[in-house]
């Protein structure tokens, strides 16, 4: 099956699963507190629905616009902007008639479900698949290090032994930890056999972001192609999985990290690529993209190990993994408010790109858990039209003893709704721009 379709199917399946459970997080406490739920929809039913059926007081359905889902709760100012209902006297089964603490639980239900679900999926992953890791013994060639990090004392061929005095199990995580975990020092084993503990400057993550150095450590590996990306330079040039690169534009390529500088120097220029296939030396002409990309995926030639866990340890490890996933996402969220970060925002195309291009249950569940935690965090932001906006106004009411008036709530809801629509359009516009011009 086409990789695009595989990613699209996984995206729709994952989001549908997460949206339905999120809305159940609102629906169940609403029903428990005797609040009427008028609609329960997967996707938005603007003008019409693909399917709908009324059971009791609630219409269940599937809309045609896949931008989310919703439950319409009686007596609540939401995106439906049902002013006629709000103009009538409050009924005992309406949201607005319930105590503030019950309304708060109803509004927090969706976020709570997404957060708990993300942690539970990670626990399941630990129990079923365990964790993959590559230690220093599996990387005898070590890492290639960018020039700016050599100034701190790192050398090509270094292997990571410890981070902040603790054994570092998965060497491939070092870039992520540098960017988001506030590392203070790294102990490495140089190729000459000596160990050295190197201090890391404060705010190294911000420095990496500003300089565009998101992978200061790159594994030293033979340049063998694992797969070819469709409709890019490598496919056009006729390259295949298993080809081993030899030179680009007459510059010898002995390891993967030596390719990027040469490719960047020759972006959008047609150059000769020499490679080996089945013991035979061949050559082809290839044109790196505007960003110096050639369109193939590396083949990792080191041993990737996997650690399995029992049920009790899976719960602990899964919780820990979920915590750090949430913390890392919150930490890097600050970059969204920078000029560079704003240009990197992505919509459904970027989200779909997180899924593997061949069906893989581990990859599917890993991405679904990540999206669940992201949805929880994004929904709790204090923006009107999001759950966090309703929670913000409810907390105000509980502290002051006064409800914001309905007119103010209507205006706030409308402003929040248009802000969200603008953000969705901008993020998906970035996807389209990258697809057309990157």
Q: Main attributes?
A:
438 residues; Pdz3 Domain; 44% helix; four-stranded antiparallel beta sheet; single chain; transmembrane; hydrolase; zinc; 3 domains; elongated; alpha+beta; PDZ_sf; metalloprotease
Provide structural commentary.
The structure is a single chain. With 438 residues, the chain is of the alpha+beta class. The chain folds into three domains: 3-41 and 71-126 and 368-437, no CATH class; 136-216, Pdz3 Domain (Roll); 224-298, PDZ domain (Pdz3 Domain, Roll). It has 14 helices and 16 strands. The protein has helices at 3-32, 83-87, 100-128, 147-150, 174-180, 204-211, 233-236, 259-265, 311-332, 339-343, 348-352, 361-379, 387-400, 406-437; strands spanning 37-55, 58-73, 131-133, 143-145, 159-163, 166-167, 185-189, 195-199, 217-219, 225-228, 244-248, 251-252, 271-277, 280-286, 296-298, 305-307. The strands form six sheets. A four-stranded antiparallel beta sheet has the order 6-5-7-8, with no helix packed on it. A hairpin with a 2-residue loop joins strand 13 and strand 14. Helix 1 (3-32) crosses helix 3, helix 3 crosses helix 13 (387-400) and helix 9 crosses helix 12. The protein starts with a helix and ends with a helix.
């Amino acid at each position: 099956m086409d990789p695009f379709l595989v990613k699209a199917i996984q995206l729709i399946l994952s989001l549908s699963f997460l949206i339905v459970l999120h809305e159940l997080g609102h629906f169940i406490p609403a029903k428990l507190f005797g609040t009427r739920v008028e609609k329960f929809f997967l996707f938005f039913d603007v003008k019409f629905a693909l399917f709908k059926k009324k059971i009791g007081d609630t219409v269940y359905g599937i809309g045609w616009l896949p931008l989310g889902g919703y439950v319409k709760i009686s007596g609540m100012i939401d995106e439906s902007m049902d002013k006629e209902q709000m103009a009538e006297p409050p009924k005992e089964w309406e949201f607005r008639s319930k105590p503030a603490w019950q309304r708060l639980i109803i509004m927090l239900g969706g976020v709570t479900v997404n957060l708990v679900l993300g942690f539970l999926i990670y626990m399941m992953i630990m129990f079923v698949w365990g964790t993959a890791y590559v230690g220093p013994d599996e990387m005898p060639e070590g890492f290639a290090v960018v020039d700016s990090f050599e100034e701190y004392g790192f050398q090509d061929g270094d292997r990571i032994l410890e981070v902040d005095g603790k054994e570092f199990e998965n060497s491939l995580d070092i870039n992520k930890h540098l960017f988001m975990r506030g590392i203070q020092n790294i102990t490495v084993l140089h190729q000459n056999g000596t160990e050295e503990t190197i201090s890391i400057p404060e705010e190294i993550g911000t420095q990496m972001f500003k300089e565009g150095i998101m992978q200061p450590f790159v594994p030293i590996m033979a340049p063998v192609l694992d797969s070819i990306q469709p409709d890019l330079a490598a496919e056009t040039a006729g390259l295949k999985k298993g080809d081993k690169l030899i030179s680009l534009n007459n510059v010898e390529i002995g390891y993967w990290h030596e390719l990027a500088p040469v490719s960047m120097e020759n972006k959008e220029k047609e150059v000769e690529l020499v490679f080996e296939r089945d013991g035979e030396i061949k050559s082809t002409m290839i044109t790196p993209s505007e960003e110096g990309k050639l369109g193939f995926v590396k083949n990792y030639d080191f041993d990737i190990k996997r650690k399995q866990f029992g049920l009790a340890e899976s719960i602990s490890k899964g919780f820990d993994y979920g915590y750090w996933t949430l913390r890392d996402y919150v930490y890097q969220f600050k970059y969204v408010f920078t000029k560079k970060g704003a240009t990197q925002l992505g919509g459904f195309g970027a989200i779909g790109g997180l899924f593997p291009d061949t069906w893989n249950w581990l990859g599917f569940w890993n991405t679904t858990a990540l999206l669940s935690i992201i949805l929880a965090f994004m929904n709790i932001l204090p923006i009107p039209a999001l759950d966090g906006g309703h929670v913000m106004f409810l907390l105000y009411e509980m502290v002051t003893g006064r409800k914001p008036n309905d007119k103010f709530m209507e205006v706030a809801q409308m402003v929040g709704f248009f802000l969200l629509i603008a953000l969705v359009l901008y993020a998906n516009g970035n996807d389209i721009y990258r697809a057309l011009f990157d």
